[in-house]
Amino acid sequence: MKKTVDSLALAAWTGIALVVLLGDSGGASAAETGPPLGAANFLPSPERPVGWRGDGTGRFPAATPPVQWGRWAKGLTHEIRYQAGRPKDTSKPGGQPLALGIIKDWLVAGPFPIEDPEKDIDRPLLAKEPAIDPDAAEGAGDTAWKAVHVGIETQNNQVVNEGTCDRPNVDFVWAFGERDKHLAYAFTHLYSPTGGKLTLQVFFAGKAVRVWLNGLPVTGNFKDPWRPNAEVELKPGWNRLLVKLSCAESVRNCGCNPKQSQWHFTAYLRPKPPIAYQSRNIPWITPMPGRSYASPCAVGDRVFVTAGLADLLSIDKRSGKVLWLRSHTYFDTLGDGDRSARPEIAREIAPLVAKALQNDEALLRLINAAVSPAGATWQQQEALTNAARQRGELQGKIQTAFRKLDHKAYPRWEENDAGTSNYSPASDGRCVYAVFGGGRDEGTNVVVCYTLEGKRRWIRCLPLGAPEHGNHCSPVLAHGKLVCSFERTLIALDAASGKTLWSYTAPDRNLGLGGATSPLAATIGTSDVVIARSIFDLADGKILWKAAANLNRFAAGTCSTPVLAGQTVFATDGSRSGHDTVAAVRLGVKSSGAVALEQLWQRPGAEDLGPLYHAGHIGSPLLAGGVLYDVDMMGLITATDARTGAQLFRERINRFANCNRQTYGVCASPTLGGQYVFVTENTGGVLILKPGPTYQEVGFNTLESIGAESQEQEVFLSSPVFDGDRMYLRGTANLYCIEEK
Amino acid sequence: MGSPAFKPTAGQPVGWRGDGSGQFPAANPPTVWSEKKNIVWKTDVGAGFSSPVLVGDRVLITTEPDLLICLDAASGKELWRKAHKTADFPAAVSADPPPKPHEHGDATPAPVSDGKSVWVFIGTGIVACYDLDGTRRWSNWYDMSETTGYGRTASPVLVGGRLLVHFGPLVCLDAATGKVLWQADRARASYGTPAVTRIGGVDVAITAKGDVVRVSDGKILADGLGNCGYPSPIVEGGVAYFIDRKSTAVRLPEKAGEKIECKELWYEDLDPNGPPFRDFYASPLLIGGRIYTVDRDANYYVLDAGSGKSVLQKTLALPPAGAKDGPNIYASPCLAGKLLFLSNDAGETLLLEPGDRLTVVGSNSLPNGSGGTPTFSGKRMFVRGGNFLYCIGQ
pTM here? Predict the structure, then answer.
């Protein structure tokens, strides 16, 4: 295992004598026996439990995953290439291969003032419109065509939280500035070897849009904000796509962003449904019964994942088939006594539950029939979507029936927009522990323990509430205790019985973990502790070090969870500057026995990217080979010397991610799989880097996955997990097993 | 309320949504307007989610980052503006480190006035009091924790010479001096503005999270009455209504003891069938036994106030309703004269007749909208549109 900063000489820290500090990055040496994380024969145990990010570090050093894989729709789109400028030899292919359907290279021309954005869209402002075939720098009216490559740096501005960047747009506000009542053109060349029919989607903000393919008008339902689709037919060889877009107000005030672009579009080329897929280095893809942003948890020959309202699934690693599915409603949280206490439960709710169980079985059959290297077929997807919808309705009816009985005893745990199964499960090799629910404000949190075979050992229903976007903090297992965080409350349960051992409720939301930061188990000196903004004694919940409300050191003001290396904690902090800084803090013990912290360094945030750049961290940092990697929600990767805090490099992923208020560009934490660092963006693109002081790209892989219902690319917010030759990656719709064939 | 002759007093102050009810029965604003029609004036005041407040011949409005602006109501001419950074104040008002502007804005709360003074609450934690000519009477920064994730949004409320400010904890200031009279830590703020009412002659504030707090000493007489995520509660006829995705109505007792028992009259889910969930940002209107409200996606509800049952549920033509990242409805519906005014943040306003059927009698638009709720006086309507404050009238 790599040596980490904690073994370095202490900086001068006068007045405080330090007691023994542990030397190695993993923690206690006795627990380090056995194969390292990522090894095919690694098995979690009570001494070495696993949960979110494996042991919390995001490092699976013994894994040997592939660096190339892919999934793509069969047919036309996979062979399309595009380029902005005119091809030199029109008989030959050229340009960039189309990936995930997004056309990223364009020529733009404008801005042209207009009187009426609705009427003037049909007024030709270019000679020979629409039969034009321009090249960069050629004239367009009084102006010239200029090349635009779609990316984060070509969006009007980068205020992320209220959604400026949105999709990877061709943004005319970026290209031409704020121009109310203007019109602009965008043009690109598409190469298709065979030609054929496909779907063109043009999402736009603006007043009116017109589209031409090879000089002929394209009619489509572009005003539909969900499915702005048109059926088009490409001819073999080169094709010309022209988009014309008018705006009334080019920017608008949206939330905290006074300049949200209202003059942009994104064009996707999608295969015509039903879409069939092929894949490379993917032994199986298992469709999920519901969405979740939790990471999988690999235990022995199984993978555990959460889904939907409150589902826990056990999946066979070899086949990808679901071995068992346990769903949870209020009915499951009640003992027999409680169920018989109210006659309505037996009379009205029990029949619904019986029906839901039947539905679960039917859904399982559908899922297992669809497991394959290419994933569910279009027809299977549609059947699964229907079954999942029916299931959701049934579960909703059960929950509503309980609310009708007593809405204070059974508050909605499903009430929040971000989901209720985003806590990653944990395991000690004997049992698997999962957390669900949270709701909003006064919601209920459900904690449950199953044997690996699916026998329930205990279930707890904790009315501890959640922040307005829910609880999503993964539980941490340490020394026979399961520590969970719900809103302002940190609670330690006995892993064997589920009984509450201790709990602490912070007086102030700024002193609690909030909804997204997970507690972290650590050892300081000889004490086992939990880091959860403040530092607690794992044994009894006593506060060993108390965080201040306005001066937080552990992931304050961000969603990310700190990462621990020996006695050093690396954490993002967005509480003071508005830009997330990253700091290294050493944990120590004074001679008096009191816990003391020493900040080793603090790396500034991205202020240099301008006042409008406000991208916090959802994912957590990764320490690998003495370098700390952090990736913000806009996909900005920063590498920092873990010893000194000096910035080593900064690069953007900048591929396909959507960056808006529904989905931030990168939420997954960077993860070490064997020799490489894996960074997942929200469209499922995974960037692979070689660790080191310079940026070295090893590969970039995509998983094309268009939902039959959404007709949009699947969203990936979870961190991957590595296990021997394999990587498991959870999207909102599927669990992917990636392994070289 | 709504009459051109209305003048706020200490007994009848004016602030967010007028007296908090959103009802201006004596107003009679135009039913047709546009950028080119029936605009008496428009003045660039800057960005913000706040609502204008009309005090006699003046309009007061907060705007980002920390401004209180006073305009002449007749002409829209700016009379004065005051900034609220700690550096703008005497040395006595100090904060170290200085309060950080919130990325979601600090000028969401509306000012409140008794006709002589105006009080302003800036989300960074500054409260100030001015006379109507802009002379500062006092100002202070209060070191209080925040309990909301998107900044402080509750407007201050004036009751019996006391100023209630929901910093996080509910805090009562002496309106004349700014001195803290009490602080109720357990009465935590969400986003809504507290409603004030009297129980057996005792002034109480009812918070969005369902705490009943006695104004005289900050004692929490009851809690858990209801729970509004973003909206504000309303009180009428001794009943407190908490209207959100999960709605409750609670009868307050006749007398206020040290602890009070409140009877829940009903509980209803406004979207009982699960996701996709719709947030309510707007606060409701209660008129003639009917509750009118609207969610962020323009789904309009009429509820029977007695039973909580939905009488009407319709998606309004406030375009593009249901769009992924389209306009939202933040502004609360208002009654002006006999009509309901509902606006989205893209500048579209629908005029509806109250009642059990959806009767749209008008639809007007301005180039830009806002999250602020309008206010009304006589034949005029004052509404934020983008960075402008509009006075709409014939």
Answer: 0.91
